[in-house]
Specification:
The protein is of the alpha/beta class. Among the domains are: 1-204, Serine Threonine Protein Phosphatase 5, Tetratricopeptide repeat (Alpha Horseshoe); 421-542, Nucleotidyltransferase, domain 5; 561-722, Rossmann fold (3-Layer(aba) Sandwich), CATH 3.40.50.360. Helix content is 54%, strand content 11%. Strands 9-8-10-14-16-17 form a six-stranded mixed β-sheet. A five-stranded mixed β-sheet has the order 3-2-1-4-7. A four-stranded mixed β-sheet has the order 13-12-11-15. A hairpin with a 2-residue loop joins strand 2 and strand 3 (449-455). Helix 9 packs antiparallel against helix 10, helix 12 runs antiparallel to helix 13 (268-284) and helix 23 (578-586) runs parallel beside helix 28. It is globular and about 80 Å long. The relative contact order is 0.06.
Length: 756
């Protein structure tokens, strides 16, 4: 499995560092290393490091011995989560191996180094090293060394989500391991292949494959790493669908084996994992008292390990909810929340594929705490407002953490002035839709009061409607989207109607969550009144209130920097209406500059922004928002403008004292139904350092785009209108035109961030 430091849900993604024990002739045989290896095998990595460092002081060590010590030190530092030091140790090991001209040792270190580079999220460097090593190993008759390299190559392919290719590579690993009669590598190959096929949802007898792994694990020496292989086997059994009694028995047996080994080794952390996962088995069997018992033990054995303590506390809170103990659940979730906050940003350290970590490990703590508070608020009477405001605080923390996780940038949520709810205009409502497994909760804040509405609809039903809505919405030849649009309106807007009418609300600020980010809420449809939501309210979305600075744009001194690409370059289609779009906007503002086609170069964009602090930056070019922020870009004539580059172009300088007021991206798109890509779009203003962004969820006909964007800027010149109202008027104008009435032409455009 993919190597990373052990974690509650990420064990399934591990190729544990123990797998990098030097195979074949490089197994450790020096007496001076044996004590350190014993510490290592017991899971006492700090003592192993101390011992091996002392051994290195011996001036008479051979190059191979010294190289092996640095290799072992690297493995120990990986186990402690210190991957930068691990990489330094590998570099020293490699230097010694090269001096001694030891080709097999060099290849082994290269393979291990590629894995550490993956942990440090440097996949390009890992790929280069692996390709070179795989070419060299062909000249050696070392099948186990080749398996080691191929296993890491499979991991790289898995990280890229190329699961079919990875599955083929893992099959090669299994065959080479069998040829070498190496059970450890065979275990890794089988487990990795099962994971790849699970991702592909292939019709394979996974249970039979897992059963074949059990005797291989049992044959391993009783070392610390053996326990983690049992855990991996058990977790895979829990993931098999359908979740049968036989699968649960297999998982239970694996976790019992891990616990027995933990007791034998007196290793508390391994005990915590085994007991915590046993709690999941008991929960599936509805044996909640047993699940509570072992989960409490897991919490006890994790007291000095905050990286896993918060997770078991979250599991305990979930079990307490199921047994009806809301008071106990609230206390437990609050403890988990408190333990998670200080360590959250470092949890991704060592994660070869961090994309699912936040969703599977971190997010449930926030939502679990919010869920309990909402349950208590619905029947708490006088203390309801206090509880609801606490929910808002938790959700705001979550929104900031989500963006930090997506952009892998701890500072991405900094620099904005938090919105004070008591400073909001009386005609503006803040809406938080909260998607829970068994219901939807909607919090609405108007005039300093927070209201709670609960809708009894399952997460699965909402998700299916959202998917069908977006699919149907992008086909202009029919109006089948209307059925889903009306359902979504009934779920998310109708419960708020009386509140919105009572306060004469005309602007909705929506903080969407999860898959709600993938759809334009402006296109929800009030079938009774035969009106789209945008015809009733101006709408803006924001990734979080604390990420938004609501100050109006100074209308008397608007300066605009226009950039566009009408030519087809880099395998992207031409956008013939871009020149017309830029000319129309230019005519509205006296203070402007245009870079079009061959002039739209990264260097010229940089030079222009260095000279003039424009208040609006407009980019009319293909843009792609991906689940991987590294693959998110805006197309220029000579290259791709990544989010990091965009941030560096728009950041504060001596010339620019304030953030830009508006960043407009008039031809961008996100992948259909991709929640993380939509999160990137929602966070583009924050990442770029702009107060607001205007961008699209999908690529829109560039004729209608030119008309809508031009009308938006025309409306924006009216100082009596907010940005949200300017966009509303532009969208309503297209709705009034028969040719562009279908939402495919106007709904994709979102105003993100500051709505004033």
């Amino acid at each position: 499995m993919i190597t990373q430091k052990p974690g509650p849900l990420t064990i399934l993604l591990l190729l544990l560092f123990f797998a990098t024990y030097p195979p074949g002739n490089y197994a450790q045989d020096e007496k001076s290393l044996s004590t350190g290896q014993q510490f290592f095998e017991q899971g006492n990595f700090a003592k192993a490091i101390e011992h091996w460092k002392n051994v290195l002081k011996n001036k008479e060590l051979t190059s191979i011995t010294a190289s092996n010590i640095h290799l072992y030190l690297s493995l120990a530092y990986q186990a402690l989560g210190d991957y930068n030091t691990a990489l330094l140790q590998l570099e020293q090991a490699l230097e010694l191996a090269e001096q001694a001209q030891l080709p097999e040792q060099i290849l082994l270190i290269d393979s291990t180094m590629s894995d550490v580079l993956l942990a440090l999220q440097r996949p390009e460097e890992a790929e280069k090293r692996l390709i070179n090593s795989l070419n060299l190993v062909k000249s050696l008759d070392k099948p186990l060394l080749q398996a080691h390299l191929l296993n890491n190559w499979g991991n790289l392919l898995s990280i890229r989500k190329e699961y079919e290719k990875a599955s083929v590579v893992y099959q090669q690993v299994i065959q080479l391991a069998q040829q070498s009669q190496d059970n450890l590598m065979q275990i890794q190959g089988i487990i990795n292949q099962i994971q790849a096929s699970l991702k592909l949802e292939q019709a394979v007898d996974h249970q039979a494959h897992l059963k074949s792994v059990a005797p291989l694990i049992a044959s391993l020496p009783d070392h610390f790493e053996k326990g983690f292989y049992w855990l991996s086997l058990g977790q895979l059994a829990l993931r098999l669908k359908p979740s049968s009694d036989e699968n649960l028995l297999l998982a239970n047996s694996a976790f019992e084996h891990a616990f027995s080994l933990a007791e034998q080794l007196s290793n508390q952390h391994l005990k915590a994992y085994a007991l915590g996962f046993l709690g999941q088995v008991y929960e599936r069997q509805h044996s909640y008292l047993e699940a509570l018992r072992v989960t409490r033990q897991a919490v006890f054995f994790s007291q000095d390990k905050p990286d896993i303590l918060y997770f078991w506390e979250g599991q305990l809170g979930q079990l307490l909810v199921k047994t009806g103990d809301l008071d106990g659940a609230l206390i437990t979730y609050q403890q988990a929340f408190a333990h998670l906050n200080p360590i959250q940003t470092r949890l991704v350290t060592g994660q070869r594929d961090p994309s699912d970590l936040f969703r599977e490990q971190v997010r449930p703590i926030y939502f679990g705490l919010a869920d309990v508070m909402l349950r208590k608020a619905s029947s708490s009477g006088g203390s309801q407002q206090k509880l609801l405001n606490q929910v808002l605080y938790v959700l705001e923390q979550l929104k900031a953490a989500e963006l930090q996780d997506y952009f892998q940038d701890e500072c991405v949520s900094g620099g904005q002035k938090a919105v004070q709810l008591d400073n909001l205009a009386s005609d503006t409502a803040i809406i938080y839709p909260i998607l829970l497994p068994d219901r939807v909760e909607i919090l609405t804040n108007v005039q300093q009061e927070t209201y709670q509405a609960t809708v009894s609809v399952s997460l699965e039903e909402v998700a299916q409607n959202v998917l069908e809505f977006r699919q149907n919405l992008q086909t202009s030849t029919h109006y089948r989207f209307a059925e889903q649009a009306d359902k979504l309106y009934q779920w998310f807007i109708s419960p708020l109607r009386s509140i919105l009418e009572k306060h004469h609300v005309n602007t909705l600020i929506i903080i969407p969550d999860g898959f709600l980010r993938t759809i334009p809420l402006a296109a929800l449809y009030n079938a009774e009144q035969r009106r789209f939501l945008i015809e009733e309210f101006a709408i803006a979305i924001t990734p979080g209130l604390n990420l938004t600075e609501p100050t109006p744009i100074p209308r008397d001194k608007i300066s605009i920097f226009l950039n566009g690409l009408s030519l087809g370059v880099q395998n992207f289609s031409p956008l013939p209406n871009v020149p017309k779009e830029l000319d129309s906007i230019q005519a509205l503002f006296s203070d402007n500059k245009i870079l079009l086609d061959q002039n739209f170069l990264l260097s010229k964009v940089n030079q222009t922004l260095q000279k003039t602090p424009y208040s609006i930056v407009h980019i009319a070019s293909h843009g792609q928002f991906d689940s991987d922020p590294k693959k998110t870009f805006l197309l220029t004539y000579d290259g791709k403008l990544t989010m990091d580059k965009l941030e560096s172009l728009l950041r504060f300088t001596e010339l620019r004292k304030d953030p830009i007021e508006l960043l407009t991206l008039s031809a961008c798109q996100t992948a259909l139904g991709d929640e993380r890509a939509a999160l990137g779009l929602a966070g583009v203003a924050v990442k770029a350092g702009a107060k607001s962004a205007l961008a699209s969820l999908w690529f829109v006909n560039d004729e209608s785009t030119a008309g809508l964007i031009t009308e938006f800027y025309n409306q924006l010149k009216n100082s009596k209108l907010s940005k949200a109202q300017a966009l509303q008027n532009a969208q309503k104008k297209l709705i009034s035109e028969h040719t562009f009435r279908h939402p495919v032409y106007w709904a994709a455009f979102l105003l993100i961030g500051n709505w004033l």
